[in-house]
Specification:
homodimer; about 650 residues; alpha/beta; TIM Barrel; 2,3-Dihydroxybiphenyl 1,2-Dioxygenase, domain 1; 2 domains; nine-stranded mixed sheet; eight-stranded parallel barrel; about 35% helix; elongated
């Protein structure tokens, strides 16, 4: 599959965009006219730069307001087109995008349109270039891709074809199957964009909310499947107008974009395998499988196979001063498993829940994590998550092909080497060999610590990491969704919005099908991403943003009440839940008085839905990390979202040292 | 008019919200349930705090999912209501908001609904409280305020009335005139919210995009006029769900909110005067005028009268090092009018365009402007704008009643004292006495400078400040729109979005009717509001945000080409416009070759529309300030928006010191 991207997707100057596209590995680009008009590079400079960078200049775009106009306006439009065709010759480009007319169309007559398009095609032919006609979803008369294709057929000129843009088709819920019947020689170009399903006017939706494939909710693999079956072999090019991507680091966004196409290519191949062409009937069914792909002219590359992780292997918290963390974990009932033989890390376990405390000093961590200046400012933060996978090597190879930045990990003799890479928020993701009994071989590298009372070790033999909640920088939220979708096969759920004293928190759950892994990505309010104005923290100076949003690891146990009582007896500093909460809980759920008293006594939170019940409590926060203990009863599948505002409000209150009355 | 606000409008804890509301001067508040549930304050604490702060607790809200349900669910709902009524007694509150059922309604039967509402009213009566029933715009069966009112009439119980919420009514485009016929004793509460007109699902629109009155596009004065005519005398209370307000400084937002009600009160009185009640016929017409108000039970306070400013009196630029500014202004053809007798400021003029250079050192400026830490980081910035008004005293009194923060201005003997206040972006706004001939008396306080060649002084006798373009912090954009609307009678125009290499810039023009004042508020991409990560600027450390977005003052002249030639001869550093721009211009407009050559030679930009033509050029940037010279031909009323992306791209290129080929 030939990959492409429109320069309008990216931030920066034309030169910066082209360089970033080359680094990310795109085959070609679409030049968005405004990027050229505003550039000091001459057309010849651009042509040479593209050649030097190994980028094909696939499409000049957009040409607007052409068809369905009176004759005098048409003459002016042809003159305008002539100037652009001459410009394209200087650029060495051969295809121009023509959008169906929105603003100046006044005559709704297919014959007239065909005549006008024919004259444009003729002019293009004289310049040795081609025109790809696209139906905009909000085109005045032409807004259906089948109409655009029908006009192209009517004109029947070798220099006029159609451009298929997934947004304009899928935003209108058009059926994509008819694409298969198109003459592939008349499909001059294919643009892909994904989008969240929003109910708003399609123009605003298109201009601001498009995302890269895999970051939205469109059925793009199906769309691409039909395109491939039609016999199209040209570029598959991203055209994504997105307010956030336009202001994010151009090189990162280009990599995110490239990842989306690599993933889409794999998904398209999978769709083709799962959906043999109807016309080919039984024969196709038999041929289903990897071999089936070869029958189509477009080649679809494969990736190392994906398999969803079975569970969390560990969570790692980095701390300059580890005392607070050690106290919390001990009080929760975790056992100290000793220090690592060669590294400054500790292992704490409860059942199969493993927490590594990394004693790396904050300053060294900041210097090492050049991609994450924020990390330097946080004295205690979640720094890594380990996942149990079937084959760490295959999963790591897949992540690498998906352009996940590798994390170098030194290993000593006899030590297990984890394959690792950096997530978009700079959290290190490690791929571990899961074992059926829930143990981990690498824990044997620890062990020189003091013993822990046996009754504590035996406390929660079935404990596991239930979920990990990570704060995401606003620029990289969509990127993170695609990252975990493509590299780890986690599935994004519909997102929730939770009120907090500093704004709404957008909460995106990513799941494996069997719920072995639950990852929660939280997009914190902007002010929490920057830290209070004028506040100074150690190491904060000159390091950019400071995050004050709190992240956490949640552990599931069988008996939360017993766990909470034991923790209380060990002196745990619970997050204190306001008395008003319990009154409201009673009004909503009509709980047994004794049970309600227990909840209140232990600062437990409660939720209930049709599937089951959820009990949980939070610890106080150390640095920007806290812990949660949960008990899932029945088939409860949520996270106590109705209780989240309580947590946010109490944490905010603590953070701001306000005088409280109760 | 009794003013109120729902706590859900604001950021922070319940205590912080209540304190901010009291400081802003609200008469009462609505307690949003979640704010109480998440608060450590007991109901008795809240009651005492409200009393101490002089705040009435107007409305407990919301109570949901009550009506149109089967009997077993109704029993549970009544039990839930009973708990809330008991809570309200502890709070000392007498009115609860009941929303029409969205989620659990299953029976569409008005008689059943009336019976269920009657049972709730009866229960409320037992507790001595009242229920205000509101039709949500997306209510399952009840979503029209007239239906809700009709149900209230059917029930006819003294403890059941209706709540009118402007959003739920105006978002659906319902006619508001029928409100006048409502029995005022059955209107228990009135909530007001404004909103921009967006085409999206009404629930998302409501939850995220509401704004305070005057910041959106709803006809709120008319809505209020009908409410007043109905005879309602209760609180007029803001209920505004807004993603930005939820994360902005609570005290500032509360003041912004209060300003919106003060303004709405005045607008409502004006609407009543302009629209005498239809039933009262000729008599009412005769009574039109201030006296007409007195006939309604609700008292509407008046403000000092508003009159739009006639023009700009001056613009002030603050600079630590003034050399760059002096050079630019001199090259543009401004004459140096000398230094001030007692202050460290210079006056530069061209025709009636006056620019003050304030030599205050950057560090002192930073210390003085505690509300604007950003200012400290900017070595050169627009610091003040003077407006010509009919009566500075009246305009200043009006601004003060609208809670604009006053700016203290020391004056020496014999010097003119300007009335001044601080705009939401911290720019100082001064109110000056305009003179019919365009001169300003205060310029006599300057004069000890060296002479300027006479031919330069005579260069552009008709020059004026055409517009001023100010960057707005993202948290205060809506506040700024209301501020200039209410305090200076500027009218917001539909906003534009302009592409830049660092993201879309939202550009909001505020105008006087005769175009004497054109103020452009630009909402820059977030990254430009923060400055590049890790970059260090003098004075930037520890001062929070740094803005890299550039602001400017534009001057209108009669002959831009002559002005540009003269500036070029004086060595002006023009913003260099790429050659590609002129090729595109030619393709679009088919300009005379000689004219195009002149544009290209002088780095002029060009635009044309049905009304006229626009020529303009930009200077290079000093600090974060640059200047623009414009010539308006015919009735051209824009700002060359199609050219703005060129400016942004070239300025970005300069800022980032990229190697350019041309």
């Amino acid at each position: 599959m030939r990959t492409g991207i429109a320069t309008v997707c990216l931030a920066g100057t034309l030169r910066e965009k082209m360089q970033a596209c080359a680094v990310a590995g795109f085959d070609g680009i679409e030049i968005f006219e405004q990027d050229l008009v505003t550039s000091p590079l001459s057309p010849e400079d651009v042509r040479k730069l593209a050649a030097d960078l190994g980028l094909n200049l696939d499409l000049y775009q957009p040409f607007r307001d052409f068809d369905s106009v009176p004759e005098d306006l048409l003459a002016a439009n042809l003159r305008r087109a002539d100037a652009k065709f001459r410009l394209m010759s200087r650029l060495g480009m051969d295809t121009m995008l023509l959008c169906s007319n929105v603003g100046t169309a006044t005559i709704d007559d297919d014959d007239l349109r065909a005549t006008q398009l024919s004259r444009l095609a003729h002019l293009a032919g004289e310049h040795g270039v081609k025109v790809a006609y696209e139906a905009l979803a909000w085109g005045k008369y032409v807004n259906d891709y089948e109409d655009a294709h029908r006009l192209v057929d009517m004109v029947d000129h070798p220099n006029l074809g159609t451009c298929l843009d997934s947004f304009h088709i899928l935003s209108r819920d058009w059926d994509t199957a008819p694409i298969e019947a198109f003459n592939p020689e008349k499909i001059f170009f294919v643009q892909v964009a994904d989008a969240p399903k929003l109910s708003m006017d399609v123009l605003s939706w298109s201009r601001h909310y498009r995302v890269f494939p895999g970051e939205g909710q469109f059925e793009l693999a199906k769309f691409m499947g039909h395109v491939v079956r039609a016999g199209y072999t040209g570029p598959v090019s991203l055209e994504v107008f997105n307010d956030v991507f336009r202001q994010s680091d151009v090189e990162r966004t280009a990599v995110d974009a490239m990842r989306s196409l690599i993933w889409l290519e794999e998904q398209s191949a999978a769709w083709l395998e799962a959906n043999p062409a109807p016309a080919e009937g039984e024969e196709a069914s038999k041929a289903a499988g990897p071999a089936a792909r070869r029958r189509y002219p477009m080649e679809l590359a494969t990736l190392p196979r994906v398999a969803e992780p079975a569970g969390f292997n560990f969570a790692e918290v980095r701390a300059g001063d580890t005392a607070g963390l050690e106290t919390l974990l001990g009080q929760l009932g975790f056992a100290f498993n000793g220090r690592h033989r060669t590294k400054d890390v500790q292992l704490w376990t409860m059942g199969h829940a493993r927490v590594i405390i990394n004693e790396e000093p904050a300053t060294a961590a900041g210097a090492a994590l050049q991609q994450a200046p924020a990390a330097a400012a946080i004295s205690v933060a979640i720094s890594a998550v380990g996942f149990d996978v079937d084959s760490p090597v295959i999963a790591a190879a897949r992540a690498q092909q998906l352009k996940a930045p590798a994390v170098p990990r030194k290993s000593q003799a006899n030590e297990e080497v984890f394959q690792g890479f950096a997530a978009p928020d700079s959290t290190e993701i490690f791929l571990c060999q899961g074992s059926p009994d829930g143990t981990a071989a690498w824990t044997r590298e620890f062990g020189d610590g003091p013993g822990v009372p046996a009754e504590d070790r035996a406390g929660n033999p079935g404990a596991v990491i239930d979920h990990v909640n990570l704060a995401q920088p606003w620029q990289h939220f969509d990127e993170a969704v695609l990252f975990y979708t493509s590299a780890l096969a986690l599935e994004p759920q519909p997102f929730a919005e939770v009120a907090s004293p500093t704004g709404l928190v957008r909460s995106q759950v990513m799941l494996t099908q069997d719920r072995g892994v639950r990852l929660v990505l939280n997009l914190a309010p902007l002010l929490q991403q920057e830290g209070p104005t004028g506040a100074s923290e150690p190491g904060a100076s000159g390091t950019g943003h400071r995050r004050t949003y709190q992240e956490h690891v949640a552990f599931a146990v069988d008996d939360l009440v017993a766990t909470a009582r034991a923790a209380r007896d060990r002196g745990l500093d619970f997050l204190r839940i306001p008395a008003n909460y319990y009154e409201d809980l009673d009004a909503r759920f009509e709980l047994e008085p004794e049970f309600l008293a227990t909840l209140r006594e232990l600062n437990l939170l409660y939720d209930r839905d049709a599937d089951g019940e959820f009990l949980h409590f939070y610890t106080a926060t150390v640095g920007s990390v806290f812990f949660e203990m949960v008990e899932r009863r029945g088939a409860y599948d949520g996270y106590g979202a109705p209780n989240a505002p309580v947590r946010h409000a109490v944490q905010y209150d603590h953070l701001h040292h306000l005088t409280r009355t109760s």
